[in-house]
Design a protein that fits this description.
single chain, 388 residues, alpha+beta, five-stranded mixed β-sheet
């Protein structure tokens, strides 16, 4: 039952006005047929009266595709029919409602000149219908003018609200697209940043391996040809790998950046990072629990960047007065937690990376990331990374 209702509701919401038009058409046709040759009713012929009613009403069903032409066609058909059979256009209730409907729709037109001209045209049709009637009455015409003007004003107000709602939806959709685009750019930037840093980490390691192989080769005895040949292969392969890495990853490095000449930071440098945060005006408490273990270079760098990002967010975005950094080693994992007492969201999006970038870093090593406000106030960033 709920599924049927969910399917029918969009149809009802989109076509309820068309249903009212069809209902009015049916009432008008029925009254035309049953009131034929009545003293105040249509005077025939029947086929003309039926076609006239259809010409009055059916154009309104095409108002979405032809918004201006449909209204002009309906009002024009009423004007033309009044010359042949004024009784068919002077139904005491339905024809008046259709006149109000036409004025309402004219009022909803976004072009003010077209809208006002439509109202004037409809009032002119009302005057023509009154003149072509058997007993023209100035009072009836004045009533029509007032009623049609009120309907036009209501339509203008409703149309303005609809346009504001449509514009709000367009702005929301545009903002959502821009947010997704920024998120994609943040992911791409962070991946490029990770690639650059890993290049420096791996490049440093391969350089050390190559230098060590060269040093060992030079200490060999003259008769150790096989060992010398193997070490030469290691040296040559290492140099080729470094050159290829520079060519491939070089395109990811920004023009203002240069390859790192010093090892990348790690958790061993947390004291310096905390000291910088304190110098910037943020009191930070650093705690390390468990037995520290040596992490792989890339994982160590990722752990350091997470703490760095958390402190940056606490200092710049959350307006924190106090922060705490906890590093816990346990069960083959390292857990990093940065908490603060700030009031901001602390997502760091304004920096271009934020949570999107941190999630990218954590996902590279199969870790988990949690970030959000704390129940007792402030913000918490927690990441768990597998050591192996």
């Amino acid at each position: 039952m709920t599924m049927v209702a969910n399917r029918l509701w969009p149809l009802v919401r989109g076509y309820w006005f068309d249903a009212l038009i069809l209902a009015g058409m049916g009432v008008w046709l029925g009254d035309t047929v049953f009131s034929l040759h009545h003293r105040d009713g249509p005077q025939g012929p029947l086929w003309f009266d039926v076609l006239a009613v259809l010409a009055f009403t059916t154009p309104l069903l095409a108002r979405r595709r032809f918004p201006l032409a449909a209204l002009l066609a309906a009002a024009g058909a009423i004007a033309v029919a009044s010359f042949i059979d004024d009784g068919v256009v002077k139904h005491p209730f339905v024809s008046f409602l259709f006149g109000l409907t036409i004025c309402l729709l004219f009022g909803m037109r976004p072009a003010r000149l077209q809208s006002a001209a439509g109202l004037a045209f409809t009032i002119g049709v009302a005057a023509l219908v009154e003149v072509n009637g058997p007993k023209p009455r100035i009072g009836d015409f004045i009533f029509d003018v007032v009623a049609f003007s009120v309907a036009w004003i209501i339509g203008s107000a409703v149309g303005g609200k609809f346009r504001e709602a449509d514009e709000a939806r367009r702005r929301a959709a545009r903002a959502e697209r821009e947010r997704e685009e920024r998120a994609r750019h943040a992911v791409a930037d962070e991946r490029a940043r990770i690639a650059r840093e890993l290049h420096d980490v791996v490049g440093h390691s391969v350089s050390v391996m190559t230098v060590q192989a060269t040093a060992v080769r030079r200490t060999l005895e003259p008769d150790q040809d096989k060992e010398r040949e193997a070490l030469l292969v290691v040296e040559q392969t290492g140099r080729e790998a470094l050159a290829e890495m520079r060519r491939v990853v070089g395109v990811l490095r920004r023009p203002e950046e240069a390859p790192a000449l010093a090892p990348q930071p790690s958790l061993e440098h947390l004291d310096q990072l905390v000291a910088k945060a304190r110098e910037a005006g943020l009191p930070v408490d650093l705690r390390i629990e468990g037995e520290p273990v040596q992490l792989a270079a890339g994982l160590d760098l990722t752990a350091y960047r997470l703490v760095q990002e958390g402190l940056t967010n606490a200092l710049k975005h959350a307006r924190a007065q106090q922060a705490e950094v906890l590093v816990r080693y346990s069960d083959g994992r390292v857990e990093l937690t940065v908490t603060d007492d700030g009031r901001g969201a602390g997502d760091g999006d304004s920096g271009g990376h934020g949570l999107v970038g941190m999630r990218e870093r954590v996902s590279v090593y199969g870790g988990d990331l949690e970030a959000g406000p704390r129940p007792e106030g402030g913000y918490r960033l927690r990441a768990t990374l597998p050591i192996e």
